[in-house]
Amino acid sequence: MSAIALNLETTGSREDSANPLHVDVLIVGAGISGIGAAYHLSQQCPDRSFTVLEAQETFGGTWWTHRYPGVRSDSDLFTFGYRFKPWLSAPIASAEEILKYLDDVIEENDLGAHIRYRHRITNASWSTDLRRWTLSVTREDTGEQLTFTTNFLWMCQGYYRHNHGYTPDWEGFEDFQGTVVHPQEWPEHVDYADKKVVVIGSGATAATLIPAIAADTAHVTMLQRSPTFFFVRPNVNELADMLRQLDIPDEWTHEIVRRKIAQDMDAITKMSFDTPEFLRQFLLDTIRPLLPDGFDVERHFSPTYRPWQQRIAVLPEGDLFTCIREGKVSVVTDQIEKFTERGIQLASGETLEADVIITATGFDMSVLGDIQFSVDDKPVDFAETVTYRGIMFTGIPNLAYVFGYFRASWTLRADLISDFVCRLLGHMDESGATMVTPELGGEEADMALVPWVDPENFNPGYLTRSLHLMPKQGARDPWRLQHEYSVEKEQLPRADLDDGALAFK
Ligand SMILES: Cc1cc2nc3c(=O)[nH]c(=O)nc-3n(C[C@H](O)[C@H](O)[C@H](O)COP(=O)(O)OP(=O)(O)OC[C@H]3O[C@@H](n4cnc5c(N)ncnc54)[C@H](O)[C@@H]3O)c2cc1C
Fold it and tell me: Does the Cβ of 408 fall within 6 Å of ligand 1?
């Protein structure tokens, strides 16, 4: 049934909403996680039928949604790319390059016919009697309501709302007479030529956008409430370049460079916990010579948190600092008191005049794609569930969830989760089970529960704003979300599926 329906879809025919469509596995989202899940499923579980439902008009997720000037990765693509497809260019990549890479993965593995675009899932209900999920889906182009069913739901929906960004509630915001743009909602044309621009925020988005527009503006002010750590490096990987010169096959180069980067990242993470002040000074010392004489580096670039308690933004070639040195960009560290007709009044009393204000203030976190879930007619509140290895949730059958690393590339974890899900599906077949649900056993029933992420460990604004909506973690494995790739790459492939944490029926 699904294969026929998929063929109809590719020839443009409509489905009959009276006939629910059924697949073995349904993947939500065609971003880097969903495309990876589809690839691994097709390779490791070739007999299973599957469909990917994507709300947007094409694949790419993050890399399609974000169109502001200069949008690029801040991870290297050896590790942000998949384990199975070598990355052949410079480590830091533009959104366009990442979309091309994903397009190649879809093309080379015939995944296109499995993906349905403009299909937004709004409801998902599990029935234990039927042993399946029923999904209500709205076609974004026609408004048509469809029903899909599946034995297993694989959530690859990312972690934030794609249709709008996060904008704080500022006093007087409506009074401002100039142009306001959020980078996540960048229109086709923004007129910043020869204009005074204020960019609010200093995270990776601000730091990539500013160098891309600065030369065309009259001036850009980067206004931040608090500083961000930056790591400057050239956009090359010397090891990859050397291996390429030696004519080493691309697959080997990819794997060797991934291992080396993972090892280096691990060392930096360890340093951020063991000797945070040493790492802070190292980061500040690398940027100091790139800034003008007398620049107050401590005030503007030394955060109050320890390195890696929030993401360290990578600046290839230090382009933001070049703009500051050239006088095109200045940095102001202050609080916004209110917006005025002509700009922003700051808590210090200073005012910033602006023609254009860019609100690089981040994401609006979304828990599981804003889908209303129910299990046997009982609504699910994910905040009341406990995570199993950061992949499944107590009381929610046949559902896996992809959430990547904060301090390492997201895709390293997405690949590991794909292996885990495929192994789990195989295990269900072998044991004749049609249902798998994480369940806290007797001893664990009163285990101490902690937030999804310990704010001491990692605490960016978008996460702390929404932690109360996220599932909880337990105090011990397998009820914790693991943050370290070096640990999880050993742990997850060996995880005992019969240790009692998962109930198979
Ligand atoms: C500008 C930017 C740069 C980043 N750079 C890096 C980086 O360098 N390294 C790194 O590790 N991380 C980075 N991140 C984080 C990044 O979002 C993730 O690493 C990764 O792209 C997430 O991929 P994903 O497929 O899991 O989710 P997304 O890219 O968010 O894609 C999820 C998809 O699911 C779809 N979807 C959601 N809900 C539904 C629904 N109900 N029905 C149907 N479809 C739905 C969405 O439309 C979307 O297309 C960056 C984020 C941003 C915004």
Answer: no
- Find out whether the beta carbon of 203 lies less than 6 Å from any atom of ligand 1: no
Question: Are 286 and 377 contained in the same domain?
Answer: no
The pLDDT tens digits of the residues spanning 258-278 come to 999 999 999 999 999 999 999
CA of 71 to the centre of ligand 1 (A): 14
- In-domain check, residue 278: yes
**What tens digit of pLDDT does each residue of 327-372 get?**
999 999 999 999 999 999 999 999 999 999 999 999 888 989 999 9
Please give the pLDDT value at position 169.
Answer: 94
Is 55 near ligand 1, meaning CB less than 6 Å away?
yes
pLDDT confidence of residue 13: 31
Omega prior to 211 cis, within 30 of 0:
no
Please give the pLDDT value at position 310: 86
For the stretch 296-326, pLDDT in tens is 999 999 999 999 888 899 999 999 999 999 9
Q: Decide whether any atom of ligand 1 lies within 6 Å of the 38 Cβ.
A: no
Map residue 19 onto helix, strand or coil.
Answer: coil
- Output the CA 30–ligand 1 centroid distance in Å: 9
Tally of structural domains, the chain: 2
Q: Hey, whose CA ends up nearest to atom 48 of ligand 1? A: 61
Q: Which residue has the higher pLDDT, 461 or 59?
A: 59
Beta bridge partners of 137: 121, 146
Q: Mutation test of ligand 1: which of 27, 51, 62 has the most ligand atoms closer than 8 Å to its C-beta? A: 62
Look up the domain containing 318 and give its range. Answer: 167-361
Which residues have CB under 8 Å from 388's CB, separation 6+?
Answer: 394, 438, 478, 479, 501, 502
Q: Tell me, what's the pLDDT at 51?
A: 97
Tell me: do 171 and 293 sit in the same domain: yes
Angle between the N-to-C axes of helices 250-274 and 276-287, in degrees from 0 to 180, rounded to the nearest 10: 120
Ligand 1 atom nearest the C-alpha of 75 is 8
Q: State which of 361, 394, 419 marks the end of a domain.
A: 361
Do 337 and 409 have their domain in common?
Answer: no
Same domain, 200 and 323: yes
Mean pLDDT value across residues 74-89: 97
Residues 130 and 233 in one domain: no
Distance from Cα 94 to the centre of ligand 1, integer Å: 15
Q: Write the CATH number for 490.
A: 3.50.50.60
Residue type, 342: R
Residue 437 and residue 406 share a domain: yes
Domain finish residue from 361, 384, 408? 361
Q: Which of 230, 241, 223 is nearest to 280 (CA)?
A: 230
Ligand 1 centroid–CA 267 distance in Å is 26
Same domain, 176 and 325: yes
**pLDDT band at residue 8 using 50, 70 and 90 as cut-offs:** very low
CA of 196 to the centre of ligand 1 (A): 31
Pocket probe mutation, ligand 1, options 157, 310, 370, 382, max atoms within 8 Å of Cβ: 157
Q: Check whether residue 355 and residue 224 sit in a common domain.
A: yes
* CB of 279 sitting under 6 A from ligand 1: no
**Residue at 209 is within a domain:** yes
For the chain, how big is the Rg over CA atoms in Å? 24
Q: What is the mean pLDDT of the chain?
A: 93
**Torsion 139-142-145-150 (CA) sign:** negative
Structure token digits, residue 282: 């190292």
